[in-house]
Amino acid sequence: MTEPLPAAFHMADVGGKSPSFRRALAMGRIHVGAHAFDHIKNGTLPKGDVLKIAEIAGITGAKSTANLIPLCHPLPLDHVAVYIDLEPDTASVAVYCVAAAYAKTGVEMEALAGVNGALLTLYDLTKPVEPALTIQDIRLLVKEGGKKGRWVCPEGVPERVAGILPDTHDRPLEGVKAAIVTLSDRASSGEYEDKSGPKLRDALEFLGAEVVSADVLPDDEDAIAARLSVLADGGDVDLIITTGGTGLTPRDVAPEAIARICVKTAPGIGEALRAAGGRHLPTAWLSRSIAAVRAKTLIVALPGSPKAIDESMDVLKPFLRHAVRLAKGGKHNCNTRPGGAS
Questions:
Q1: DSSP E strands, 145-209
Q2: Contact of 187 with 194, CB cutoff 8 Å
Q3: Quick one: 142 and 199 in the same domain?
């Protein structure tokens, strides 16, 4: 057998990942000294108003990241903004860059590239009046999205720019009481650990929901239908999400159990889940995920893998709160914000 040709470097293969909302905030600082600071502040540098040019350069830098850093993925950025803050006490200029995209990988490098583009432009246009310039404090402040959710720099975000990003992540399910039901013969018997249920709990709580119940049941249609009926009819649960039992094997009976106890279905939810998954994994089209309403409680059946939980919640997030509200008898709201409370 011929040995494969070696490759010293490669971009990470993100082809199998589903895109999700990503956002990052980065900062940096340049110390310019009192003389140059006055020129920057008053717009009297020989080459003109450096602050405006640096802002444009920062945006250009963020957009050019993949061309500057060899192994970065080219990303279709949805938003880039550069904020420049004069700091007279230290004769410094602070630069902040926020980048956002709906993508398969994060935008940290784009935010950092934006900061560097602005700082280097500040350096270039300031050096004619002051060669002793120091660029420092370049760091990532906040990243959002992906498996790890929201990360904040241990040193915190400077109060001056706290308003650029919300202090907390979007919590569209705030006030929603949710129940989780894992459907698995082997997990219910203790043969292996239930990983999907805890993953789903983390995802729901991250979005603001209060998880009031979590069950692990065998793949038995009667038992599933009975438990879902009790949860929905009790009046204490707004949302029930099951995980597992949506495939084609004889023991996959989640859709049948839900259909038995519900009259009103929401077929678009299952279609959205399959469409999103099918873009990257052809077998996702075999999933029989469904959604329906019983006693003003929305019930959604998701696949059983932890990865599918992440991908499914990304799909559901923009409209799940609105669906829960409608199931409870609320009116349509044409101004519902994607990803936010309605």
A1: 151-152, 177-183
A2: yes
A3: no
Q: Of the listed 124, 137, 202, 233, which one is catalytic?
A: 124
Q: Produce one character per residue of 63-76: b if its CB has 16 or more CB atoms within 10 Å, e if not.
A: bebbeeeeebeebe
Domain range for 140 is 20-161
Paired tokens of 65: 């990241």
Structurally, the chain folds into a number of domains equal to 2
The phi, psi pair for 25, rounded to 5°, reads: -125, 125
My answer on whether 127 and 192 are in the same domain is no
Distance between CA 87 and CA 53 in Å, rounded? 18
Residue 168 CB-density burial (10 A; 0-12 exposed, 13-18 middle, 19+ buried): exposed
Model pLDDT for residues 115-145, shown as the tens digit of each residue? 999 999 999 999 999 999 999 999 999 998 8
215 is catalytic: no
**CA dihedral over 297, 148, 60, 34, signed as positive or negative:** positive
